[in-house]
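notes to self, project folder thing:

trying the whole complex as one job this time. last attempt i did each chain seperately and stitching them together was a nightmare. four parts in total, labels are on each line so i dont mix them up again. if this works i'll redo the older ones the same way
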Amino acid sequence: MTVDSVSRERIPVAVLGATGSVGQRFVQLLADHPWFRLAEVVASERSAGKRYADAAEWRLETLLPTEAASLGVMSLGDKLQSRLVFSGLDSSVAGEAEELYANQGCVVVSNAKNHRMGADVPLLIPEINAAHCDAIATQQKRRGGRGYIVTNPNCSTVGLAMAIAPLEAKWGIDTMHVTTMQAISGAGYAGVASYAILDNVIPYIGGAEEHKIESEPQKILGKWDGAQFVDAGFRTSAQVNRVPVIDGHLMTIWLSLKNDPQSVDALIDAVRNFTAEPQALNLPTAPERPLHYIDAIDRPQPRLDRDRERGMAVSVGRLRASSLGGYCMVALVHNTIRGAAGAALLNAELLDAKGLL
Amino acid sequence: MTVDSVSRERIPVAVLGATGSVGQRFVQLLADHPWFRLAEVVASERSAGKRYADAAEWRLETLLPTEAASLGVMSLGDKLQSRLVFSGLDSSVAGEAEELYANQGCVVVSNAKNHRMGADVPLLIPEINAAHCDAIATQQKRRGGRGYIVTNPNCSTVGLAMAIAPLEAKWGIDTMHVTTMQAISGAGYAGVASYAILDNVIPYIGGAEEHKIESEPQKILGKWDGAQFVDAGFRTSAQVNRVPVIDGHLMTIWLSLKNDPQSVDALIDAVRNFTAEPQALNLPTAPERPLHYIDAIDRPQPRLDRDRERGMAVSVGRLRASSLGGYCMVALVHNTIRGAAGAALLNAELLDAKGLL
Amino acid sequence: MTVDSVSRERIPVAVLGATGSVGQRFVQLLADHPWFRLAEVVASERSAGKRYADAAEWRLETLLPTEAASLGVMSLGDKLQSRLVFSGLDSSVAGEAEELYANQGCVVVSNAKNHRMGADVPLLIPEINAAHCDAIATQQKRRGGRGYIVTNPNCSTVGLAMAIAPLEAKWGIDTMHVTTMQAISGAGYAGVASYAILDNVIPYIGGAEEHKIESEPQKILGKWDGAQFVDAGFRTSAQVNRVPVIDGHLMTIWLSLKNDPQSVDALIDAVRNFTAEPQALNLPTAPERPLHYIDAIDRPQPRLDRDRERGMAVSVGRLRASSLGGYCMVALVHNTIRGAAGAALLNAELLDAKGLL
Amino acid sequence: MTVDSVSRERIPVAVLGATGSVGQRFVQLLADHPWFRLAEVVASERSAGKRYADAAEWRLETLLPTEAASLGVMSLGDKLQSRLVFSGLDSSVAGEAEELYANQGCVVVSNAKNHRMGADVPLLIPEINAAHCDAIATQQKRRGGRGYIVTNPNCSTVGLAMAIAPLEAKWGIDTMHVTTMQAISGAGYAGVASYAILDNVIPYIGGAEEHKIESEPQKILGKWDGAQFVDAGFRTSAQVNRVPVIDGHLMTIWLSLKNDPQSVDALIDAVRNFTAEPQALNLPTAPERPLHYIDAIDRPQPRLDRDRERGMAVSVGRLRASSLGGYCMVALVHNTIRGAAGAALLNAELLDAKGLL
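result (full assembly):
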């Protein structure tokens, strides 16, 4: 089943936190989107009332989309015309604001961390757990309306979860150690001072980053049993670092499996052949191949590989047997596209394709 | 016992590969050395016969030492006046050249990888295995003369081995996972193209870097039993990366112990209180404290911490219990000082203090 | 007049130096080109006989084009099937090789510096001096055949010449001071060691870079009088620097004019409204607007503005009156696209549109 | 005449803005100073009452000096015990606070821009205009007390003024064009976001940076005529850029002279031989040679040359005749040492040596 992207009008959408770094990515990715049309931009009091072009200090490599430039910025809390709402809000305000709009009947597709672990809130990666959408009915019932929230994971978690998904499916993950090397854009525009990171690496990221990477994959790769989410049965240890890279989180992964894959080639083949519902549905933002396995001995690399499939593919390389037993590999995810705004967009497309909008 | 550094003449020394990046560090560190005096500089045919100032394209932040500038560059293989010889040679030529000089009666203190795993060649970190010098007599007997070779480990290995030494000594290491983020200077001046590494990380380093980190600590933390080296009994898995940092290899470490330390604080105290023979001997290049444990949540960092104790201290931080069991920590080593030329210098000082020169 | 890009077969072309950094850009830009089809790739002896995918260590952010991957690499000097030949050769070999192919009847569109100042060789920027193509007939007569060479300028020169073209046309340039801040890709893949440029600026570029910038604009903005090129009548002083930027040469320009423009706004309008023959001809690689004047006080910036119009537009900003008299401005050019391979491609399109192929 | 640095007690001093980036440099440079002893640290309300070690988030490569660590932070406006006060205050508060302390009788040696152009306030570079101290008596008379303010120039201005000082003295400067490439530390710790500057150059610096560079040298190289400062008679045009460099402002300079130096060598000799009152007085912070002329064709470079003479020497290179007439050169200044805290320290030493404290 595919969705015909021509024969209907584009759905009007709102972006919350539209002037921030994730918000700007939403605005960029929504330009020329075949299903969605950017209709409303929402930001803080300070920006409200201005033209978007004046309120947003635009910092992406592409030009500010013309259609977005002249939109008037609305204030957080204002009543929206759009039912579909993308949230690029900072976590300091996202929790309450998203709750408000969901309770007003909006479908809030959020990149913020606040509701990710909610008991009836899907933490969605369409290639992995599209079935978690079944929790939406439970959430709507709780809210007593049509509104609900779905979330996408932490930027590093997306890369990790996708890289291991085919291995978990076939052989079961037992234990993982992950070390991330994360790009500065993950901290937002002003998040990392240049004086802090030039000629340097910082072995720490605030906001309980390590805890997110250790816990979110459990929910993502787990199951919705009709009443609650049941964790996947593996354990993870994470050590995170900030590196002087613009975009693209790279990570080294060591893992042990529950069942013996017999050969490294079997693992590589599983990565290479991984495909899922977004590909079958031909969702507009979905990559043709969610995972790119790269044979070159020194790949993936952030600058060379982050933009594969418009930043929506996760790249994997150097999969090999470890001297300790278990396996080593390297994974890369474009943190502000597949790890943030692009992830949310794909989530919304899945909801639309499933008739949940 | 300490060595009196005033009452005697300085020992003349030679540097092999003196124009390369490790060689330049030797020349820098030997300026004003209380025990050793740079007397001979040796390089490839191409440089031979020139003044050192003309042959070396000097690239360090300090000025070329005046005494070194006017030395005439000798050719590799030339007969040396100095008995003590530091080798900063590239591994493509180090094997044979070091063998030659050792067989001629020289004490070759080498940074090259070629002889590190030799059956009677100490792979020396004076804070850890000064007792491995006992193998020297065996080596001299084999050579039938007074000459011998001692080596220092791979630059990352030094940081790793020192960081874990007090833990191995007290509780025994069982298993380790290490991910390194290594500075570009580790590859020599022209080793990493800027086009390759700016805004990037490369998850690979040639020359079997991962294998070195997995195997060398076994020898270093093992024992010389009078006839051969016996490995320490732990296992290590390494994943290496090159990052856009000038100097300083940072690494994340996960490890499990054979015996229960009861608390994280016990581990931290062991790191903090670590001291050894070079400190007792007051060797001129030895740091006052070989390990600096830093409490700040986001340290050590290469740019801020690599120069502690003139680059000779290894910094450790973020030691904590892992969600998997075992412990996580971060370590940093100045790769061209403690991880290369400074390591060799300290080795030579130990040999001198032990009467082995 | 526009050229119909649909109704005819694509012209087969060869790329000389196809495995180098400029050559890779040619291969990238020729993929899906509406008029030209990459038919032959030529490189050094070392690569000859291999598949292009194996010979080229592909280093661009986009994937190696499928059609190029399986081409067999030919050896420099081999007889070509293609009449149109793009040269991304290094200047050490370009002089002779381009001469050879031109004398064999090929149209050699070169990025190398060797023939730029040739007495009958156009140094072409289609927006500025398309009329210089008149020299081709003279050159063909000299060669006694249909072959000829056209060249594009030095990468910084392209940015400078385009930025000043509308000012020269309206008011006449008298004197210029230029300081460049040039990206590392301008030196080729291995041209700048990371150890040399991280946390650094190098106030020098070899190969007489400053001389090129001081002399080439004279020819470009001058005239072909039917028998020879006559220099434009201004004088230029250049000081060049290498900066840690991947792509994009930024330059500060101070200039004085022969005639009074009355206002800064007149100058800005001239930049904004600049358009020329490639735009009128609708050449496929031509930018819609060759010059983008950016109002923001801190632009253009290499990372944010180098990719405007697929790297083919030159960006200009901060045009203002100088405290000294004269005017200041800042210009930016994508050095490997508009300043190299893209420039050559546009030159070839102009030749085709003028019936000179 | 030299000052004996042993036979007297060290003078207690205060640092205003002690937790900021310039303030930290003051604290670093005052450790072990032979004449001055850090006695008081002053910062904003937020830090007041804390130990300095707790209030300052220390970010320099050397460790926080032990003596400073335990000082209690005072609040801006608190009465000070020290008569000598170094100000590293931000310009938003420096104007008023410095005025307050000067009127209370303190000698305020300031790095802030607020009072630099004051009619009776020396804008001091001891190598150039030590005689401007004669204005202090006038200023004291105006204030009706012993207190006064002296200032040091903008960080780029220091490098420019010193590099041209010997040329101005011998041949007279007529006109200058300057393009700066300034390090990120010039903007303070959080001044430049890494997302803004990695793989980038920003052709703009706020706070009227260009105006400062165009106007301050006029005062510095001018004269105090007993009643007022008289400008030097040259004109300057400046274009400024921020580059991804930690420390060290590099600048290209083109200049024309009033009198003919006959040869480039005469200019180079004047730079090489430049020496002045701080050297004659043997001031502790003074470099042995204020200007280092470097012959290498690609120097000075920020990373390699910024630390010459502990960051107090200005490096000059590539002095050559310009194709336009006049001369080109390149200069480098360590912006947070010679261009800020070190400059102020040297100013205070001059005041002390002249008996003005």
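what i see at first glance: Chain D has 13 helices and 14 strands.
need to look closer tmrw
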